[in-house]
Amino acid sequence: MRAPVADQVRLLTRLGFQEQLQLVYTDPPFFSGKVQRADAGEFMDRWATLPSYLEFIRAYIVSILPLISPSGFFVLHCDYHASHYIKVLGDSIFGYENFRNEIIWHYTGRRQPADLHINRKHDVLLVWARSSASRMHAVSEPWDREHYLRMKRQQLQVDEDGREWVWGHKGRGQSHAYRIYVDEAVAQGRAIDSVWDMPIIGISAKERTGYPTQKPRALLNRVVELFTAPGQWVADFMAGSGTAGEAAWSQGRPVYLGDLNPDAVAITRRRMARISQ
Ligand SMILES: C[S@@+](CC[C@H](N)C(=O)[O-])C[C@H]1O[C@@H](n2cnc3c(N)ncnc32)[C@H](O)[C@@H]1O
Question: Which of 11, 23, 110, 205 lies 20 to 30 angstroms, CA to CA, from 255?
Fold first, then answer.
């Protein structure tokens, strides 16, 4: 839908979406003080004052709150410009106890020496649960035998059939509690933590739409996988080029997308049409 958030919320409320959304992902303007421009569009990120920006974020969160499922999640993507203020704000709405994670998306890119601040190469995803009933889904990343053994820092054992294993421990005084077979541990992958190393979208990447501040598909794939199960609703009310929508729909999640910017809506429509065929 092409409309500001307030109208989008009215529409979803009329359609009966109260408490239906499992995940609301939001990547709003970051308080960068710039007009964000790229080949295929632009959007304003200039604010009179920090309090006026924070009021925009506060009013936004309060308006979408009734749409989130009691076991759902809200993920707010931001950066150093205002993440620390938004954390405090979000806690005052969701409750401090419902704050689940600060995820750091760490990306690479050109680094330069500077004497004002070091290279800023991460964004922050703040995650609140709607209640203590909200549950994430296991996500792991692949690793290999060498990496696993380096992490374990243990004498490698070999059983009578030639299979490699190391000791698993069950806490203090029980360091030799059971065998972990290396091939099984490697096949299971490594549970993710709260720092995600993922590249930004390359200049000539196929997924690049030309919309400013487009986020990588891999990042949104992981967000969708972590916070929702197939069939659960995902929404992005400031969808930009529609990355969250593409990630959700292609992983079997129904999705609602909106933005007030006509360029954003046109790009999102094209993107979604391509994967819906
Ligand atoms: C950072 S961009 C989103 C980028 C997106 N995640 C992507 O991967 O392309 C922020 C978007 O918020 C939209 N926006 C800002 N204020 C809005 C409002 N009040 N209602 C709806 N959309 C808004 C802008 O038009 C812009 O497209």
Answer: 205
